[in-house]
Amino acid sequence: MAKQGKTIIVITHKLREVMELADSITVIKQGKVVGNVLKKDTSERELAQMMVGRDVVLTVNNARKQQVESEIMYKAENLTTVNDYGKEVVSDMSFEVHKGEILGIAGVEGNGQSELVKLMTGLMESTRGTVFFDGKDITNWWPEKLRKAGNEFGAATGRPRRVGPFDAVASRYGLQCQNAGDIALTKLDVLSSFEKIPVITGYRVNGKFITDFPTNILLDDAMPEIEMLDGWNCDISSCQNWNDLPENAKKYIERIEELIGHSIYLVSTGAKRDAYLLKE
Question: Among the ranges 51-55, 86-90, 231-235, which has the highest mean pLDDT value?
Fold first, then answer.
């Protein structure tokens, strides 16, 4: 087609593809042309510099000896899930992480990385596949255990409700919108059987950590930053006042107060109407 005088436009970010196919190359960044060069006059390194605005190391020489053991600590097999619209966003993902190993996953933004992180941290549930940690099947373990502990099923349909960690960012935003004062913290007893309790303390958007709720299109790309707090692993349904609570339960409540910027005056400790206490 080129010999017939026709122009073929290829839009891609893959440098090797560009250098193989193109005669003339135009680099566009944030809607503006930042460079136009002939292939014979440029290189992958120069193109990468125009794309990101700085020198880029395209190859890494790691001379350090790897200290990776044969023991598999984390393993995913055919991990699959769908988003709120029913679209498959992670498909048959399989990988292994050995003891002492760091696994990096890279790709074009919006190709399932954030959903994979949510799967691994219990913020999303898999529709297919299994996850093993230290040889134990933990597939959908955290959400399922939390759902059963809180009886989070539809009253009429019996369908499981979506559950997840306390989101301090979204909660603080909701309190600001309502101009709320002191608040009540319900279902604290549901967390009593967990050794570690996750709390969302912020989001990471395009590599930047934020603690303000993103109310625009950035929300779709936000990945939660999670802090793990120690659980108390005991029944609190008989606690009648603040001093009756286990120390770690107090620390959990105080951390929530710190993150949301509001005082908690009432804490629900059980399913009965009188199972609550006033925070002193």
Answer: 231-235
Cα gap 277→254, rounded to integer Å: 15
**3-class SS at 150?**
helix
Q: Are 182 and 264 in contact (CB under 8 A)?
A: yes
3-class DSSP state of 92: strand
pTM above 0.70, yes or no: no
279 closest CA partner among 253, 242, 244? 242
Residue 221 burial (10 A CB sphere; 0-12, 13-18, 19+): middle
Separation CA 175–CA 183 (nearest Å): 9
The CA distance from 133 to 121, in Å, is 12
CB 98 within 8 A of CB 70: yes
Spell out the alpha helix ranges (H) of the chain.
15-21, 44-52, 113-121, 141-150, 168-178, 247-260
3-state SS, residue 179? coil
Read off the DSSP letter of residue 153: B
Q: How far apart are CA 221 and CA 117, in angstroms?
A: 12
On whether the CB atoms of residues 188 and 235 are closer than 8 A, the answer is: no
| Mean per-residue pLDDT over the chain, rounded | 86
The string of pLDDT tens digits covering residues 83-100 is 878 888 899 999 999 988
Structure tokens at 5: 């005088």
Report whether 78 contacts 93 (CB < 8 A).
Answer: yes
Q: Among 121, 129, 135, 117, which residue's Cα sits nearest to residue 72?
A: 135
